Amino acid sequence: MNVLTVLVPLALLLGLLALIFYVWTLRTGQYDDPDGAAARILFDEKE
Amino acid sequence: MSALPASLAPAEPGLSAPVCAHCGAALPAGAGRFCCAGCEGAAALISGLGLDAFYRRRDGAEVGAQKPAELPPVEWAARAVPGREGSHSLDLMLHGLTCGACVWLVEQALAAEPDVTRARASLTGRRLSIAWQGPAARAEALARLVARLGFQVAPWSAACLKAAEDSEGRALMRALGIAAFGATNVMMLSVAVWAGSDMGEATRALLHWLAALVALPVVLVAGLPFYRSAWAGLRAGRVNMDVAVSLGVLATTAMSLSEAARNGPYTWFDGATALLFLLLGGRVLDRAARKRARQACAELLAMQSAEVMRLAEDGRAERVGAEAVQPGERLLVAPGERLALDGVLEAGEALLDTAASTGESLPRRFTAGEALPAGAINLGAAFTQRVTAAAMEGSLAQLARLLSQAEQARGRYVAIADRAAAWYVPVVHAVALATFLGWWLWVGVSWQAALVPAVAALIITCPCGLAIAVPAVQVVAVGVLFRRGVLVTSATALERLAECDHVVLDKTGTLTLGAPALLPDPARPQGALERAAALAASSRHPLARALLRACPDVVPAAGVEEVPGAGLRRGAERLGSAAFCGLSAPADGLTLYWRKDETAAPIAFRFADKLRSDAAAAIAALHQLGLTTELLSGDAAPAVAEAAALLGIPDWQAGVAPAGKAARLTALREAGRKPLMLGDGLNDAAALALAHASASPAGATDLAQGAADLVLRAEGLAALPAAIAVARRAQAAARQNIGFSLTYNVVAVPAAMLGLATPLIAALVMASSSLIVILNALKLGRGAAR
């Protein structure tokens, strides 16, 4: 059962990282213009 | 790149008629590749910037939406916000932004300006932010550039902000993320407990407490939207669905804590967090669907927002917002401008189109000293108006207050989900309490052990399916309607729409196009139309405009003199009323006479306010849906009677004042009917707000759109019967979903009460019931798409 002491905290840490990442995407307004983002990916880079 | 993309017109698929290479509108006979000078200019501009790729990339653009328009008369420089080191920024609302290619075009065109440091257009929000290095005065040139590309621009207004600023929506999204984190991680720990039957006592306790460590903050934070709404409901003396959700989640958490403390076989933290996650998901979707509609409405309104020209004491004119004007101040009203404030005519005469405020389809002449209603449009020459009431006290503001009162009254309408919750929640709680008391006192287990089946009953009944049953249907139905060009602005609009049994219709601007059109007359001599139109070109009178529309490429005649209220003359040539042309024919309002000289017999041009092409079909469809109809118009009797006869509307009333319309709606409601009001004018706004449900066609006045539950954005009325059909199907689906959730409880609750339910079973039934409810809702969308 010793493996639990490593794996469980590791799993929770990874989950927490994902949550922090999600809150960051939310704060930087990445869900504000989903339609635009879908179209933007197809633009040619000019510079 | 070559100059102009040559293969543009045929690039519009499925259209065999020639269309404008820029905006896609049908080409007038004899035109080249563009429908107007504006489109030609836009295409030349785009090509000059090397951005022709736009035409190949865009898709699904609304026909004619990208016709270049005039820049609205706004003090652009004053709207620019100063930034650091001499930079400025400006936010614009864009109309006609329909696809990714439009975003690309606008951003690239602005980026080509050397001083622009940032240009970002939001396709969802229809918002364009520009930042540039340089003076505020550049704002107008940049806005004009966007307008020349073929996008209508308006300053980003408070109304837009209200629709877009979505701190509540963002809080929901954050809560959803937190709940997702909680649900997945607690589930990971729970599965370990369920699977590890040979697990030691100490390990199980450790996993219980780890789950509690994750679940407690998640339940407290992610559940906040529900706790707030439940608390608000309780304080107002109502039991809503959120009370059940809050109690279920909190009780489950408390019971699980007690189980963790005594190291019971299972904790139920996973159920609490998964429930929150599912419910938040439903709520986020529900919001997103309506946010789009609200934003589209704000966009329509922003295009109408006005500034006025104030005359200072020394005679200088300045542009100010209508809200800044005080009573007693003088305004200059330009030809074609809409009056933003109440006032009196200072001197001379004025010809105003009062269709929006009274419903009269013909313009009226006002003399000096007469009161001018706000909302009327100046059809004559510029005149001076002395303001009698500030914007906050004027007739428009009074109307707006009336609307908000009516809206509050409508806010008391109890949605079907809350009606169900009102009796469902007490029953569920009584069952849970009975379970607890039964196990504790009757069977005689410890109170902690008795909590388990009681709370299990609570969480299994906890209206997962029930709480998601109605939002899921709403999301699908609102989405279906949005794609058809119907904007649903109110949360309970669809429910109320489905219940309506009677339709009250306005005529001018709603059933008709709101503009007179020339009737064909085979007896008319050759060339008369052209001669008359040449005269008409110098007038803003609606009939003269209509004459010009019938003969658009005429060369305006020079030296035409307008006699207010009578007609136009050039030498002996006259165009105007019967009396003006020396006839004693009765004035029927919708006829113009033209004579070449004093000796020639006047030739009549008859006009009619044409019915919308699909009005008759729409009325027939409404009758087919079992609704009765009546026509209620502020216009004169003959025109109303004719329209009613043509459309097959049995009841009609003419000359109805705004108060009369409101009274009729109140009378209908008191008689137990559920009227649906369809109207577009300021004179309809009160009636719209009083109706059981209301709709406005595209192009309605802003107050009417604000009062309506539905805005029919696509041209035409056919969308209304379709919307009613969708609303009825949605209502049926919502009932099915609620019914299903209840039947499923009939099976699940006894199992939970007997203590047979484990967290695993609860998780499975919760997910499956939600899925079934969602699938049933999606069926609605598929049916509507066919």
From TrEMBL, chain A:
Q: Which InterPro entries does this one have?
A: Cyt_oxidase_maturation_cbb3
Q: Name one Pfam family in it.
A: FixS
NCBIfam families, A to Z: ccoS
| Protein name listed in UniProt | Cbb3-type cytochrome oxidase assembly protein CcoS
Organism of this sequence: Siccirubricoccus soli
Lineage of the organism: Bacteria, Pseudomonadati, Pseudomonadota, Alphaproteobacteria, Acetobacterales
UniProtKB/TrEMBL annotation, chain B:
Give the record's keywords alphabetically. ATP-binding, Cell membrane, Ion transport, Magnesium, Membrane, Metal-binding, Nucleotide-binding, Phosphoprotein, Translocase, Transmembrane, Transmembrane helix, Transport
Domain (HMA): give its ranges: 88-154
Keyword match Glycosyltransferase: no
Q: How does it sit in the membrane?
A: Multi-pass membrane protein
Q: Which CDD domains match?
A: HMA
Location comes to: Cell membrane
Residues in the signal sequence: none
Entries under Pfam families matching the protein: ATPase-cat_bd, E1-E2_ATPase, HMA, Hydrolase
- Record's keyword annotation contains DNA repair: no
Give TM segment ranges. Answer: 171-194, 206-227, 266-285, 420-442, 454-482, 738-754, 760-778
State the family named in the UniProt similarity comment for this chain: Belongs to the cation transport ATPase (P-type) (TC 3.A.3) family. Type IB subfamily.
This one is known as Heavy metal translocating P-type ATPase metal-binding domain-containing protein
